[in-house]
Amino acid sequence: MSTGYADAAFTNGYQFTEGTGYALPEYPFVEPPELKTGELRRYPVVIAGGGITGLTLACALARQGIAAVLLDEDNTVGVKGASSRGICYTQKSLEIFHRLGIYERIAAKGIQWSVGRTFAGKDEVYAFDLRQQSGYNLSTQPPFINIQQFYIEGYLVERIYQLGTVDLRWQSRVSAFEQGPEFATLTVQTPAGEYRLQADHVIDATGSHSPFRQWCEAGVTRRQGDDRWCIADVRFSTRPPIERHTWIEAPFNENRAVWQHLMGDEVWRIDYQMAPDTDAAANSREDVVRERLERQFGTDVKIEIVWVGPYAYRSECIDEMRHGRVFFMGDAAKVVSPFGARGGNTGVADADNLAWKLAAVLKKRAAPRLLDSYHEERHEAARQNVLVTNRTARFLRPADGAERLFRSAALSLAREYGFARQLINTGRMAIANPYTQSSACSYNEHGGVIGPGLSVQNVSFNWADGSEGVVNDLLQWADGRLLVLVFGALSAAAAQRLRALGLGWPVCSVQVLGAEGSAQAREFVRDPKGHLQGACHVFGHAWALVRPDAYLAASGEAVDGHLLQAVEKSLGMRS
Amino acid sequence: MKTTLNLADADAFYEQLLDVHGGLTREQSELLNARLILLLANQVGDPQVLKDCLAAARQRLE
User: Looking at beta carbons, which residues of chain B come within 8 Å of A409?
Assistant: First the structure.
């Protein structure tokens, strides 16, 4: 029976219509060597979970030639069991995907947007254009691309197959786990039977229902509200503008909030705020959803419902992102409501953060202690994302009384006064989180340059022959090593020190010149517009120590002992 | 946070504060107060002063 609509179970099911939904790829179960020969093998890295986070990590490790195993319980992407799958990918995520080699496919399939408008009632309260904001305009990637999460996951899978080295094991569910001083042991259930494998490092990317939390007795800080939402992914006969529209009080939704966003394949995501503690099943019925859509878009517009998914607002944050050999990432580490696209994007950043550190430690380029900085950096990001989304949630679902009163006050002032528009919180878009307390970053103590711990945008510059390059090209050239960019002329002694640094340490140095001037170092590029310097947050004669995840580890002026100390620190070799 | 008088004419301000609520329902008065707090907070700006004022306003209410 095809109704054009699959009944949404309110178990956070991700279900597609029979006739009009998506055809998801299926990947084959291949009998692993453990089942064929019965031998027990040990792997340097085992990743549990093949969602966007686990696959990003697997792809990043594959690029570094690390032989990892990824276990996924399903045989496809776009899996069941996840609520509100992501649609909106930040510049930082896009820069990461560019490095992994799938950005072009995402750009071709997805929708670029930069304009957001916020309405209350019939009035527009404020609008923004991210392209006009200085934080976004230097990168070669746009501020955001909207695309269904499973497309990115599918591209990652194909890229991992292409790269080899990482073993993707489908229909493989981890059913038991234990760890000791020597290794961790995982029990895996498959269609061909059960087997065990050993791992030096285990990555939990199994999502919000992570079994590892219990196996590791991990503490989790939780917050659950009564706010309920219902997503409808739809196609229209006439298309709305390619902008992010948000209603705080939508007349067509009983004065509750509504989101409107375009994805790939001309599918729109319309996200409706429901009455508190509403019955998710009843509100997700096709006739109810259709009536809601007609109230917003009119009865003339032909609407095809692709997917419906209700969800409840909640936030969760694990207290420690590392438990022995286990590293928690993505939704397994923290769950936030979707405001500002702070879920999937931070999972991608978690993966990118750990990937280079794991690769550096496994290649003996860095000390094992570097892995502790994963918690320091990404837990700060997780806490920040929980804080920011909780504030949005509180604005969108104010408690009766003072909270609602102040929202009314802010909304009424926002129509007239610019300052009050900043109080209207319909979601603060995700950014590349800064790391302010990392043992792997060298902070400049005396004020001065503010930069270490910040992301370096994928800006363009000119190679020595005049052709254009981007930061990701430099990182690819450095191939998992640290990158030292030295801006301006070099003394003979400084050039000598850089050469020595490159011989003793996993460091690649590049001199960065303006449009004119001759190079003293063997490797040099030109930065005529100063974009590279701006991206590194330095001014004048300076050096910038850039990590493989395009974060600034340290910066300074003279090429001296401070640079060497910063290199040691960013490799976990100095506290 | 200032705790000594900073108003040029305290009695006149107090009178204006009462008058501006004239003829409003209780609900409208509450909204006016909330709008006023946001407007004044933006004049103050300083986060520490605002934090101190919030704490002082809350004191001895329970």
Answer: 31, 34-35, 37-38
